[in-house]
Amino acid sequence: MEGSAAHRKIELQAPEDLSYLLANVRRAAAARLDEAFPPVDGAASRDGADGQGDELRTRIEELVNEYITKTFTLAAPNLSINGLPVVAAHFLSGDSSGPPQPEEVYEPFDARKRARVEELTREEEDLLRDIAALKKSVPAAAAAAWAEAARRSVADDERDLAAVNERIGASQSNGQGKEALLLGEVSKGLERQDDVEEAYDDAIRGLGRLKRDMPAVVARMERARSAGEYVVTER
Q: pTM higher than 0.90 for the full model?
């Protein structure tokens, strides 16, 4: 008995599988009985009051049914349906023409689903932390970059203006017109005009990337939250 307990049970997927096997065995036994003991023509039913019937066939049929019942009763402890034990009385009692009424079956605990729930929960928490960090760091970084670019631009403008004033003062001492020199300097543009425009374009592109990436991060967080809620609900 100790050695047989180590053997794995025969696994069936549904109660209909065992009903199908039992019906096939009984159908094969009935066919062999018909071959060995053909029904007597004109004989009434065994349960009828007027029929004599074939007593030998009736007795053999009872023994065969008893053997089939005993065989499946002894085999039931070695069978399992969807991981649950088999109750032979549900299949052997009464009429075997149809499957028994389905039983309420609870899904066994699945460690993989629990691990998946924990993984989704961790992912949601990581996304929430990333969003919180972006909300704190990105606007401040963008504002700091813009302020630095503005300070550099103002400093360059002041330096250029000081240089122009010096040239105007020098031109006055040399007898040149103040307005002509000022218009000439302004028409040439600032010495670092290209750098100022490039810094401005970089700031605009940075704000555009921020506006474009934030919805994607928020969408990822929403998908992770929805998946976590679905798995928890299904469990």
A: no
